[in-house]
Design goal:
Elements (H helix, E strand, L loop, with lengths): L3 H9 L3 H25 L6 E3 L6 E3 H17 L4 E4 L3 E3 L5 E9 L1 H5 L6 E8 L2 E9 L4 E6 L3 E4 L2 E2 L12 E4 L13 H8 L4 E4 L3 H9 L5 E4 L4 H13 L3 E3 L13 E4 L4 H10 L19
Parallel strand pairs: 3-5, 11-12, 11-13
Antiparallel strand pairs: 1-2, 3-4, 5-6, 6-7, 7-8, 8-9, 9-10, 13-15, 14-15
Helix pairs in contact: 2-3, 6-7
């Protein structure tokens, strides 16, 4: 099965030299964002909400995004950018930078040390390459098709976990969870009772990197955006893992639902998600949600 990132490379027509150049740009941009996150961590002056309740933005998000965009503008001025805080910036061609300057803003705002800067490049909606900086852990991840997935000079490989009962999983909950019955609560409970446990760390790109590194064996989540996914998906694929939609079909970045795991866990995760139905709102103290459409 051809990986998404290899399909992107084949379709893009990029030669080896240009792929390498773009990968170095992604790495430099992620590092620039990470430096800003280090500089502001524990020193925030203001935290605001944007859109849904609990969806936070800080001066660190803005500073990190500015640093990333400066690198991208200097090195690839004609390539379009989709950034969490700035939205989409126009460009030419089918390449698109997908930037999350602060993946894990809620963690960051509370001083919880699990966050990072994610910079991914896609081609026609397919993840192509990416880099991720995790400042507190002093970890720098990067991956590109045919070049493997790496962290601080160490090549990554997904775990050899072959059974759901032996797995450690990770997931997350979207900001819209307080407004929807389709909120991942039932899925969390279902897999918690059929695995060694399910972690909820609060930073999707870092979760994906941890799958690639073999620290967790599988990951699923809904409500994600392309900037959450592109870099991490390439990391997982290049580390020998598999990535797909909830139903096992090809991942659609716009859909926002992803499974990423060891090859052996792909089918158990697909089957488990298909079995889950939303919990009633009354069961978790939100009876008003029972009258709404999931």
């Amino acid at each position: 099965m051809t990986s998404l990132c290899q399909r992107a490379l084949d379709g893009s027509g990029l030669d080896a030299a240009e792929l390498e150049r773009l990968l170095l740009v992604a790495r430099e941009a992620a590092e620039a964002g990470g430096r800003e996150l280090r500089r502001h961590f524990g020193r925030l002056e203001q935290v605001k909400e944007k859109g849904l309740a609990g969806n936070l933005v800080t001066e660190a998000d803005l500073a990190a995004e500015a640093a990333v965009l400066a690198v991208l503008a200097a090195a690839t001025p004609t390539v379009a950018v989709l950034a969490e805080e700035s939205g989409q910036l126009a460009g030419q061609g089918d390449l698109l930078w997908c930037v999350d300057p602060l993946d894990g803003t809620t963690n960051y705002a509370h001083g919880y040390p699990f966050f990072g800067t994610s910079v991914g490049l896609s081609w026609q909606g397919l993840p192509l390459l990416g880099a991720l900086e995790v400042p507190v852990l002093e970890e720098h991840y990067w991956a590109a098709p045919g070049r493997g997935a790496w962290c601080n000079g160490r090549q990554l490989r997904v775990s050899d976990c072959g059974a759901l009962a032996d797995s450690l999983l990770v997931t997350g909950f979207s900001y819209d969870r307080v407004h929807r019955l389709d909120n991942n609560y039932a899925e969390f409970a279902w897999f918690t009772h059929r695995s060694h446990g399910v972690r909820r760390a609060g930073a999707a790109a870092v979760d994906l990197a941890f799958v690639a590194a073999g620290r967790v064996d599988g990951y699923w989540e809904r409500g994600l955006s392309p900037w959450d996914l592109v870099a991490g998906v390439v990391l997982v694929e290049e580390a020998g893992g598999q990535v797909c939609a909830y139903d096992g079909g090809r991942l659609d970045l716009a859909d926002g639902r992803v499974i990423a795991c060891t090859p052996a866990l792909r089918q158990p995760l697909i089957e488990g998600l298909a079995l889950c139905r939303p919990l009633s709102g009354a069961s978790f103290g939100a009876p008003e949600l029972d009258a709404t459409t999931p």
